[in-house]
Amino acid sequence: MPENTLSVTDNRTGKTYQLPIEHGAIRALDLRQIKLDADDFGLMSYDPAFTNTACTRSTITYVDGEKGILRYRGYPIEQLAESSTFLEVAYLILHGELPDSAQLRAWTDDIIHHTFLHENIKTLMEAFRYDAHPMGMFISTVAALSTFYPEAPDIFNLENRMYQIKRLIAKVPTIAAFSYRHSRGLPYVYPDNDLSFTGNFLSMMFKMSEARYKVPPALEHALDVLFILHADHEQNCSTNTMRSIGSSQPDPYSALAGAAAALYGPLHGGANEAVLRMLNQIGTVGDVADYIRRVKAGETRLMGFGHRVYKNYDPRARIIKQVAEEVFAVTGRNPLLDIALELERIALEDDYFVSRKLYPNVDFYSGIIYQAMGIPTTMFPVLFAIARTVGWLAQWQELLQDPEQRIARPRQLYLGKGHRDYLPLAQR
Ligand code: ACO
Questions:
Q1: For the residues 142-157, what does the mean pLDDT come to?
Q2: I want to staple 145 with a disulfide (CB 3.0 to 4.6 A). Which of 27, 106, 253, 370 is the partner?
Q3: Does the annotation count 268 as an active-site position?
Q4: What's the whole-model pTM score?
Q5: Distances in Å between the alpha carbon of 319 and those of 74, 76, 177, 226, 423?
């Protein structure tokens, strides 16, 4: 029996098949040879929500959910959060290696000098209603960007592709900040190219009448770390959307708008918004026990807890908890933190959560930090999208360079009616 194979016996026919195992997986298409007879379509695997299906080989991000490990291109997230910057991490994720100082300077310069939006984009954003959700504005505006760059669909031209990648990374913070200013009825603040990527974003968010916004270093650092933590997370719902749309080969703006839409949902990037709503609803530390009781009774979920992959403490949550302390030293303690800490304390001791391996995820503390910085809850998924733009683009690029990838086209198990003839209305 050859090593690295799987023997499968089809008990319907008594036939045995040898399926090659590579990188700990069998190819789903190898199942197709398993047939009842020549007319049979062949066996498929059924995997709603892709719980055990690898859709790509990837060299970008490694997650070990059991051990609580997250690495970008091999580098542990803890080391990157401690020593790197968001733009350096963006370079790493996209290029595969850390930049040397000349590469980092050129990369930073390129990004910083693409932050401006076409004035027509501004006009477009002004057309949104006064109370438009910033994430809806973000998604639509990113999609609209595609109409400004007619060369963008030329995605197999490497130079052109990299140009669009830089544009997107540079412009998403501007779109995000404009969405916020719009929802507040505030004038848009143009980018300040002398500031850092994160400092410029804070300036576009919060600058008022002062000649120059003074970036608070602790907040700039905290936000930069949060961006690093959110930059990529391998094959999740939004990344899969980016790849799925990307597989039909449109321009990256259209694909990224779709990925951002996938991120918007409360089970994904909308979770930190949901955490804050939950904490506000609980109200006081004294009400935590009752909320936990309701969660265990299945009446509600403990938002910010649980993860499809992490069955251990999410390593990003641990880093965020430290960042929270740095931010609160400047902004004052967010009273919701005490409720969050009490929730975490009870949940980590309770058998319901322990037996289901439910731990705080990246979103459990990030919302509390954002709120302390003065960022409204509706902006939380938008902040997530700024950082994840890097991951989406790296995954999209990897898809385009992968000779095994084709247009994404899942199968289904059809369980509906068989053939039946149309009945005229009078006979129904
Ligand atoms: N609170 C209470 N119970 C939970 C929670 C939760 N947050 N999460 C999972 N469970 C329970 C489920 O009820 C289920 O229990 P059961 O076996 O008795 O039916 C069990 O744990 C397994 O849960 P699933 O829903 O099957 O886990 P899945 O992997 O599908 O869901 C998810 C993962 C969506 C993240 C889920 O844990 C959840 O809804 N969490 C809250 C929302 C959240 O924080 N999302 C952010 C994720 S991180 C990110 O996207 C950046």
A1: 97
A2: 253
A3: yes
A4: 0.93
A5: 18, 12, 25, 9, 63
